Structure formats: C-alpha cells, structure tokens
Amino acid sequence: MDKASGANEKVGSNPWCPFLIHNLLRKVIKLGKKIKKIGKEDPRRILHSLKVGIALTLVSIFYYVTPLFNGLGSSTMWAVLTVVVVMEYTVGGTLSKGLNRAFATLLAGALGLGAHQLASLAGAKGEPILMSIFVFMLGSGATMATFSRFVPEIKARYDYGVTIFILTFSLVSVSSYRVEELISLAHQRLSTVAIGVATCLFTSLFVFPVWAGGDLHKLVAANLDKLACFLEGLGAEFFVEKMENGNVEGKSFLQSYKSVLNSKATEDSLANFARWEPGHGPFSFRHPWNQYLKIGAITRQFACSIEALNAYISTLQQSHHTTASDPEFKQKIQTACAEMSSETGKALAELASAIRQMKWSSAAGQHLAKAMAAASSVKAIVPAEDSTMLEILRLATIASLLTEVVRCANQVVIAVEELGRLAEFQRPEHGRKAGAVKPIAGVESPPHVVIDIEK
Amino acid sequence: MDKASGANEKVGSNPWCPFLIHNLLRKVIKLGKKIKKIGKEDPRRILHSLKVGIALTLVSIFYYVTPLFNGLGSSTMWAVLTVVVVMEYTVGGTLSKGLNRAFATLLAGALGLGAHQLASLAGAKGEPILMSIFVFMLGSGATMATFSRFVPEIKARYDYGVTIFILTFSLVSVSSYRVEELISLAHQRLSTVAIGVATCLFTSLFVFPVWAGGDLHKLVAANLDKLACFLEGLGAEFFVEKMENGNVEGKSFLQSYKSVLNSKATEDSLANFARWEPGHGPFSFRHPWNQYLKIGAITRQFACSIEALNAYISTLQQSHHTTASDPEFKQKIQTACAEMSSETGKALAELASAIRQMKWSSAAGQHLAKAMAAASSVKAIVPAEDSTMLEILRLATIASLLTEVVRCANQVVIAVEELGRLAEFQRPEHGRKAGAVKPIAGVESPPHVVIDIEK
Questions:
Q1: Which range marks the domain in which residue A411 is found?
Q2: Is A138 within 8 Å of chain B by CB?
Q3: Which of A360, A390, A404 best probes binding to B when mutated, by most B CB atoms within 10 angstroms?
Q4: Are residues A262 and A388 both part of a single domain?
C-alpha cells in the first residue's frame, strides 16, 4: 500500500517527467516492434542493409590504404558518394542507377571539357567573355536537360542519368574556370565514379542478389492468387451455405484482393528495373516483362469487378431479408453461382501456379470452361420464352449497379463535407445553414443510405 | 522521270544511308512534337526548367566572384551539387528535400565529428584501432540507416534525409582519417550546403512557385469531375435515347474516368510534399491534406463501380438483342436509371466545384436526394408482392456480376497464355499439346466468350 501511494505521489510531484519518459518508452517499443515486423516480413531487407554497409566498407578501403589514396587524392570521396546514392534494393535498380551515373558522367564530362577547350581559345584577355559563355552554357544546358525529364520515356528509364548529367556538366563548366589541371581532375573523377559503381554492382550481383524481375514475376502470380482466394472463399462459404444470412463479413478472404487495386506503381517500377537486369535463373535478358504489366492491368480490372460484386453482396447482407419463396429456383441459381465462383477461382490459382513454375497448364482452361458452363446454365434456369422477365432482369442489373454508384456518391459527399469542416470552407451567406448537405450524410454509421431495389 | 530514277538509283547504291537519315529525322521530329505537346499541356514545366537554370546560374556566381570563392574554396562545388539534387518541381518537394538535406548534413556531420574526437584520444599509436573503429562505425551506421528506410513512415517523409545522413556520415568518418582541419572542412561543407538549399528555396518560392498542395486540391476535384462526366454522359446519351442500340462505345466520356483508377501514387506524393509547404493562397499550413487522400480513396472505389457498370453495359451492347416486350415497364426503369445517373453526375460536379471554390454547397445534397428518390422509384416499379420476382432479380444481379468476373478471367487466361508463348513456358510432356488452354482463348476478337445470362 505504502509503495503504491509513494509512486502516486512521485507522479503527482512532477506529472510531466514520468509521463514523457513513459510516452517515449512506449514509442521506442512500438518502433522496435515495427522494425522487427518489417525485418520478419522480408528478411532480404536486413541483408540489403548489410550489403550497403559492406559496399561502403569496401570502398572506404581506398581511403585507408595509403598507396591507393595517393593515386586518386581527395576525389576518392566521389566513390563513397557514388556508393551511397547508387546502391538500390534490387539488382536492376542498382544497374539502372549505376550505368546511368557512369554514362552521364562520361558524356557530360566530355561535353564540358570540349566546351572548355573551345572557350580557352579566347585566351587570358577573353576572361569576361569566357565567364559569360560558361554561365550561359550552364543555364541553358541545365534548362534543356531538366525539361527532358518531363518526357515520360526519359523519366522512366533515364531520370537519374539526366540529373547526373546536369550535375557533372555544371561542375565541369564551373570548375573549368578555377581548376588548372582539368583533364587530370576529370580523369580522377571518372575513375572514382567507376570504382563506386563497380563496388555497388559487385555487391548487388554477388552478395544475396535481389532480382526485380523475380519479384515482379512473384508479385503478378501472388495478385492472381489473391483474387482466386476471394472467389474460392465466396464459392465455398457464401453461395453454398446460406446466401443472405451467412455472414461472410469480416472474413479475411473478402479483403485480400484490395491490395491488388493499388499495385500499379510497384509493378511499373519493378518492370522498369527488371529490363536492366542480365539473364538470371529462368529469366533471359529479353524476358517479356511488358507482358507482366499487361497481366497486371487485366488483374486490376478483374479486382474492380470483384470490388463491385463484393460491394453488392455486402449491401445485400446488411438489408437482412428472408424471402425464400421459390426454394428450387434459388437452389439452382445458387449452385450455378457457387460453381462459377469457385471454378473461376481455381482457374486463377492454376494460372498463378503456371506463372510461378513457368509451365503450361491445361487445368486453368478446364476450370474456366466449367465456370462458363455454369454461367450458361443460369440462362437455362430462367425460362427463355418469358421475354418480359429477361427485360426486367437486364434492366434490374443496371439499376442495381447504378444504385451502388449512388451509394458511393453518398460516401463522397460525406468525405467532402468532412473536408469542408476541417478546411473551414466558406458557408453560404443566407443565415449560415450549418449542414446544407447534412440531412443525407448526417448519421455516422457506415451504410448511410442503403437503397436496395430488391426489397 | 530522269530525276526520279536518279533518286531511286541513289537509294539503290547505298540503301542504308538515306534510310537511316530518314529514320533519324523522323525520330527527331517525333520527339520535337512530343516535347511541344508536353510544354503545351503544362507550361509550368518550361518555367520549372528555366528555374533550375536560374538557380544554377545564381549559385555558380560563388565560383566566379573571386572574394566569395576564396572564402569557401573548392567546397563551393557542394553548393552546385545541392542545387542540382534538391531542386524539385513543387515548392513542397524542394522544401522537403532541402530541409532533409540541411538537417541530415548537420546531424551526421556532428555525429561524425564527435566520433572523430573520441577516436583521436587514442593518439598516433592507436592508428590501427582508430581505423578499425571507423570502418566498423561506417558499416554499422550505414546498415542501420539503410534499414530505417524500409519503415514506411520514414520512407515517405525522410527517405532523402536518410540517404544524405549516410552520405555525410560516411564522408566525415572517412575524411577524418585523411583531412587535418576537419572542423574547418565541416564548416565549409555546411555553409555551402546551406547556400545551395537557400538558393533552391528562394527560386522555388519566389519565381512562379508551383504548389504541391494546390495541385492536389485541383487533382481531387478534377477526378470527381471525370466521374461526373461519365455519369452525366451516360444519363444523357445512353439511357435517354435507346438503351441497347444506341452505340455509346468510342465516346470520350466512357474513357475519361479510367485515369482515376491509377491516381493513388500521384496523390500520395503530392500530399506528402504538401505537408511541407507553408500556408499559401487559401491553404493554411495545417490544411487537412489527409482528407484529400481519403476523398481520393473513395473516388477510386467509385471509379471501380463505374468500371463494373461500364463493363456490363458494353457487354450488353455487343450482344445486340432487341427484345422490347414491355415498352411501358422499360420506359419507366430507363427514366429512373437516367435520373440516377445524371443526378449523381450533377452531385459529383457540384462537389468538385465546392472543393475548387472551397465553399459549402447544398446543391450536391439535393442532386443526390433526387438520385436516391429515383433509386427508390425502381423499387416501386417492380411489383412488391411478387416475391419470386424479387428473388430472381437479386440472384440474377449476382449472377450477372459473376459472369463479368468469368469474362475477366478469360482475359487473364489469354494474357498469361501470351506470356507463356513469349517467355517459352515449359509445355506438358504428353505429346506437346500445343494449346491446352487454346480452345477457349484461341480467337483473337475482344469478347471471346460473351456469356449473357439475359439472352
């Protein structure tokens, strides 16, 4: 008892100090846990960090070993600098940056030297002329090179090279005015950059290489698997058990596909790096990386249709109706849906494993054929002669999809309203009607307006 | 006649040379056109390129003016280097990179110097010890800093800072072994980096500033407008005229929303930069940029439902059926759909303009209410007592959505098959069945299998 009260008193005497320490400790622990999780998720990240350490240590040997240092002088710094900026997570990234850096340095250095030689013809008298020529060259060269970075093709593949080009060109044309032995300086600079690039490439390629191409290959297959997981889960749990009462909400298979929707940036950058990589494992140098991007685009479109289906199903589930007037019909269509869903899921899983193993698979086509047969069987269930019925069905589907759209619009209204509140949007003059939009978006529970045309 | 044949002969004598020149010329002209187009699309890009030129010219003055150069020595190079790497398109980008660079240099420099002072206590005798301490420090420091870049929060905001920290720390701890006047060197280095950063910030902030925040604000509104454009176009052209015969394919409003689906990366980076920007125009320093990301996420989800709707409509149009058995019913539901579509479109357009003008608008809510009323009217059209009908409608909608999913799966099969062909996937052993998947995906016209359950 005494102890406890003592502790309380302590807190009371200086309420901030222990609180702050406690807070800091908690943050440090949280960060530690996060770091542990990141390392666990992909241990190659720890290896990469070690690789950067190794590459820097290797290159710093040039500084420490006196004969090597004397040969290159203080330019050795550039080798260290090159290692820090060029070393990337994947082999392709390092290759892309390293080669860009090396060639841009070479090109810009040669151009700058050439310009210097031309300008030096002006002689000592021409110093002001020389100076203005350099300033003009520098400005216009940098302007043009900067603009070229807005061209998407250059941006994607040579962005870093253009930066280094501007940098080297600026440094050479600026230095040429001050440094006497420009040629020897350029030679030193180029050698050190080459040493840095070589160190990076060596470490990237031979110490636990991480291939962008391999990662892209796995990512595309994994994304197909995520969609397969959703469809198989839906087929097994939702359609087979009890259509509208079986609560599938909160199940993990319903969420797994969502990350597929935002995979474009990762895929683009991996494909971009993969193009620089030499052949490795099952991938040749001219592996069709573009085709992976095409599959990725179709997969995202696929994820979109699944998103629409998922949204419709969860709206249905929230409206809790239990009409079961025609059990036979219901059973038939439900079986067909379950078949379509799980067979498509199996087909996708087959495709994913075909990509992973790089083997043709006939199973995917067979599963898809079954899914298609199930889709056709739905046609047969609905009596073909009843054209009014067909009309209604078609229109009702469009109406349902549109209803989903309207529901989405309501969410947008709520989000924009929240923005208006946070950013203090100007209110309309007439009497400050607090929530002109509010009547619709006022209630805070998720599905504000469940318009369910089937009710 | 003579002339022409002469020209032909010329081509004949050296078929490659004119061909190559012609090819090169064509490429140059194409690039020129592209550059012109990029400049026209956003003239601020040309201004940005000029700004980089101006900033470099400004900073190179330090090199050319002798008293300034004598004060800083060859470290002036670091100012040029800083300008080249720090200058970004938006104010927020420049601020983020510049502040990251300045603080990382300061912190790493101080740490490196401190370590040097500690190690120098070892004296001349301790040279090997000193050396191993530095190499170890360098390696482990770089390893830890590199690993921290995998933490998403650090990656998003301080990625560049960590790079510069590694760089400066490496340079200081490496240099400390060679350079005598380390303090003076550190002082020079820091001043030149500060000069570089200041030049960039000055040019970014005061010469035609491009605000990331303003761009994000406009982008979010523009994306809502694109969705509005689709819905209003659909309401006006598709539903009102002739449902399945009116060919809306190829109309521009059908495609405009597609870019919304891939807007995440741009929005994230703009929001990230916007957080660094000081208050400007209508935006305060603490403007709720996160809320824009939320609106963006909902907008993308919205675009997904529209994608599903669009896919369904285009499948319908390709199947060309002309059942018009119950014109009155059709008319009613068509009117309701047109109302839902165009009123939702108008609501979104209102929201976009509300964001743009930063004004509350009650019109969006009113339009949305109308759309909801139309959605409810669909319920009334379908006779409420006929529960079998309702059952069918609900199940049919799910079946239609699933059919779309199956159709998507077919596209995936085709794309993976193409990959298998390009990447030479291993074929199954038993008799090299050329196209095990082919029977389904063989035909090359777009909708290979139009499963239309309403037929």
A1: 212-423
A2: yes
A3: A360
A4: yes
